[in-house]
Structure formats: structure tokens, C-alpha cells
Amino acid sequence: MKMMKRILSAAMALLICLTAGAAMAEEKWVEDFQYGVLEDGTAEIIGYRGPGKEEGEAVEVIVPGELDGFQVTGIGEDAFYICDSLGSVILPESVTVIGDRAFYVCDVLSGVTLPEGVLSIGASAFEECSVLADITLPKCLTAIGDSAFEGCSALSTVALPEGVTAIVKETFKDCESLSSLTLSVGLTKIGESAFEGCVALSSVVLPEGVTSIADWAFSGCSALSSVTVPASVTSIGFDAFGQCPLLTLTVDSGSYAEQYAIENGISYVYPSQNPAPASEGEAASEGEAASEGETTAE
What we know:
- It is built from 4 helices and 21 strands.
- It starts with a helix and ends in a 7-residue tail after the last helix.
- The protein has 2 domains: 1-152, Ribonuclease Inhibitor (Leucine-rich repeat, LRR (right-handed beta-alpha superhelix), Alpha-Beta Horseshoe); 156-298, Leucine-rich repeat, LRR (right-handed beta-alpha superhelix).
- By secondary structure, it is an alpha/beta fold.
């Protein structure tokens, strides 16, 4: 299955290269790096052929800040696509854009430091980087593409900066080790399957201002026991919390989220009321449980 995915993705990447190549004013190799000159006179890395490209011992790659006098500001589409022994990468501080599939299926990539000036991370940029355990998202970041971190099964912590207003389709899908999630003020949308299959995630606080939670957003998060849903939420999609057997929602009285919980048979509490811990709840009588404020919708 994985090999088929690589073949299909390679074909797609080739098609993109053939159709998009003309957009660069100049394309050239400097040692191991291929770059193109952008309209603003800066360079974008568009290819790599050095150590780390083929299977072998994991290596560190240092991306230069300048090539032929052009400042490097972008890591382009497919630049380090399926570099089988790329263990870590150091990017220059001048980089502001990480393109689509830039590090796609770099499956031994364990370390990457994103410069503070990075504004956007493209679709599938780090998809299937299965040993990438930690990444710090820069404060300047404003956009993260579809599936950007999908299948990063070792990724354990995510802190979203305030500039990111939407978590889009499948951004963190199947991040099986993700246990710590901090969402920022300014977030308005949780996209389709954004956190689907994040089986280690146990608690989520959605900030005030979030208005929509799309289909399957947290589906299959089997350890998820607590989600705080603000009153600003006016839309929750199909099976958004499907296969979350431990879940209790914290909702405001009279809110859309409360009605959603009732209609879908999901336990819920109000913000001032916390359900008893499991050890206490198991021993509590029905009257004691009610005093703690937990409601099981029927």
C-alpha cells in the first residue's frame, strides 16, 4: 500500500514539475541543491540529490541560506520528496514558505527546526514522516495545508500559533502519539478529519471563536475523554466525535453544542461542573453522580 502511494505521488509530482517549471525565471543546480529564482529575486529549493536521498545511514542536511547570490526563502514542492535517509534538516532563517510535499515520506526524519519567519506550511509537507516526534510551529505561521502532518505517528505535542485560523482537512490525521494539543485564540474552524485517529489524545479545549467542527474531526480518538466546546460553535459535522467511547463534552447551557450532545447521545457537563474521576465515579451512587453535574443524553 505504501509503495503504491509512493508511485502515485511520484507520478503526480512529475506532472506538477512538467507543468509548473516555466513559472521559474531560472532553474539551476548548485552542488546538491536545485533552485529556482522567484519573481521577487529570491531562491526556492526545488530539488535535492545529495546524502540522505537514497536509503542508508541517517544524515543531517544543512540547507544554505544563499545560492549563487540569491537568498533562499522557500523550500518548494517536492524539494526533499521521499529522501529515504534524511534524518534531520537545518533550514536557514530566511525561509518563509514550506511547499506542498516538501518532506513527504521522509520516514527517518526525526528533527527539523522551522525558522521563526515561516508563514505557511503546504499540503502534505511532512506527511508520513513517521519518526518525527517534535516540531515547534513558528509564531508567524498563518497557514497549514491539508494533510501537512498526516501519519506523523511519533508526533506527541502540537501548539498552534495565534495566526492560524483554521485546521484544515486531515492536518493531523493518524498522529497516533499526539497527547498534548494547545489551540490558540483566533482559531475558527476544525476541518474534516483534522484529528481523526489520534488515539493518544485525551483532552481538548477549543478556544472561544471556533464556529465549526467538520465531519470526522475527532473520529476514532479512542482515548478522548474531555472536549470543551465554546458557545461560539454553531456547526458540528457528521460523526465528528465518532468512536470516542469515553467522551464527555463541556458545553454552555442552551448552546448548539449542548443540543448536539443531546441529539447524539453524548455525555456532557457545564463549565462549572466537572464529572467525577473514574475511580470516584465507579463507586458513586446515581444521586452523587448527578450532584457532580454530568448528564448522559438519552
